[in-house]
Each structure stands twice: as structure tokens, then as C-alpha cells.
Amino acid sequence: MIESKVKQTLRKIKLPTNTKILVALSGGKDSAVTAYLLQRFGFKIEGLYIDLRIGKYSEDCLKAVKELCKRLKIKLHVYDIKKEQGKTMQDIWKKIKKKRLNNCAVCGVFKKWILNKTARKFKADKIATGHNLDDEAQTFLMNVFKGSPELSANSGAITKNIKDKKFIPRIKPLFYVFEEDVKKYAIQKKLPFIKGKCRYSQESYRGEVRNFINSLSGKDKKNIMKNFQSFSGKIQKDKKTKMLYCEVCGEPSRGKICKRCVLFRH
Ligand code: SF4
Ligand code: ZN
Questions:
Q1: How far apart are CA 211 and CA 199, in angstroms?
Q2: Residue from 52, 101, 110, 263 to probe ligand 1 pocket by mutation (most atoms less than 8 Å from CB)
Q3: Atom 2 (ligand 1): residue with closest C-alpha?
């Protein structure tokens, strides 16, 4: 079931099997299943683990990722944030504490920046992440509740509306797969993944939305995504994202200075 859904998704986004894909491995079940299935369907993949250096959690995740790559016999790149940027994620959180941003939002900004830059360095054609249907439904609903549904416009099984030589498109092979099915599959295939949660997560609002979504039937969840797709199809025509290059780091950015550099400088 999950295999045919993912196959269909990859067919839909017209991904040739000679595409070189860098899979963002977090140590969790979703990215493990993503790597496993992409490889099973014949894609050339390599793994990337971003070591945020947040103590034991990062160490446990890295251990699971190493085991997975050994089992799949794929190359693993490790990006150590401390080595590369001179600070751990905990240092960064402390530094920008007064900005009252939640930890996950800050991690997200840095992870996206690192993924794009590293994928370019390794000449990957695409970046794959493990986002599943539940994650996407959560994000879409959160944007609706915030009154900014257009923030979801570029989301989909493949990034839309951004074409730039320095931007590596992201794919989400599990976009149409329920979280519980991903979990069952990871267990069935005995893939190594960490069971614990990051204790620094402050996404309480996402947690509330997650609980709400968990209380819905599969049909309701699918309907949320159907609405999301028809909505994003409509606004895509108007919304072509123009990319600039960050004046500080040179990475693609929507503003003169990218979000990562804005955070890093304060
Ligand atoms: Fe960062 Fe949140 Fe993930 Fe923890 S759960 S690593 S704080 S994004
Ligand atoms: Zn920048």
C-alpha cells in the first residue's frame, strides 16, 4: 500500500531514476522510510545528517542514521553545525532568546539553509525529506488558522514556483502517506530509527493541531489535503516566487538578507 502510494507520487512528479537525491536523514522513522523506498525504487541516493549538537538527542539520532546508511549501503554526509558555523544550535537559541522565536522555527530556518547549500555542494538534483501527510495537513491548517494559507503555496510532493540555479528543489515522497502507515512500515522493515522525542521542541501549537488532526478520520485528513491542493493550484498561478541572493551569504533568499543570516547576526 505505502509502496504503491510512494511509487505513484514519484511518477506524478516525473522523477527520472537517474536523479541524484540527497536524503535529509533525521534519525526518525519518516526519513528512514523515505531513504529505504527511494533506494528500493532504483534512485541514486546519499544521506545527509545535520548534527545540530543538541546533546544526547543528536548523538542518538546520528547513531540511528549511521546504522541505516550501513544497512542501505549508502554514503552518509554529516554536517556538524559547530564545526561549520562555530556554534551549536543551543548556542544559537541562547543568542536569539530575546527574539522569542520557538526552537523548532529556528532549527527549521538553519536546516533549510544547510540542506540547500550542502545539496549544491554534492551536486544533488533534488533533496528528499520525510514529511508525511499528517505533517503537511498540520502545516496547512496552521497556516489557515494564522490567516495566511498562501504560505502553503509552494508546498507539495515537489517544491513549486521556485526556479533558480542555486535552489535545489525538495521532494516529499511520503506526501500522501499517513504517519501511522509510515511507522508500521518502518517497524515491519526493521529500519533503525529513534523512538524518543527531542526535549527542546517548543512547538506546542503544532502539538495542539496534531492532536486535533489525530482525532479526525483518515477520510477527513484526506479532505484537508484535497482542499489544500485545490487551493494551492488556484494561487500558484499568481504566486511565482522571485529569488534574490542573500547579501551576506549569497544563498537564495526572498529578501535582501536571508532568514538564517538575520538570525545569526542578532
Ligand atoms: Fe529542533 Fe524542534 Fe527538531 Fe528539536 S524537535 S531538533 S527543537 S526542530
Ligand atoms: Zn544569508
A1: 18
A2: 52
A3: 104
Counting ligands in written order, the one closest to the CA of 104 is: 1
Its domain, for residue 89, covers 2-265
The CATH number of the domain holding residue 19 is 3.40.50.620
CB atoms within 10 A of CB 213: 18
What confidence tier does 223 reach under pLDDT thresholds 50, 70, 90?
A: confident
Predicted pLDDT of residue 185 = 98
Is the pLDDT at 117 greater than 90? The verdict is: yes
**pLDDT for res 235:** 64
Query: What is the tally of structural domains in the chain?
Result: 1
Q: Encode pLDDT of 187-208 as tens digits.
A: 999 999 999 889 888 777 888 8
Specify the residue with its C-alpha closest to ligand 1, atom 3: 104
Residue located nearest, by CA, to atom 6 of ligand 1: 198
Contacts of 232 (CB under 8 A, 6+ apart): 152, 153, 155, 156, 160
Length, in residues, of the chain: 266
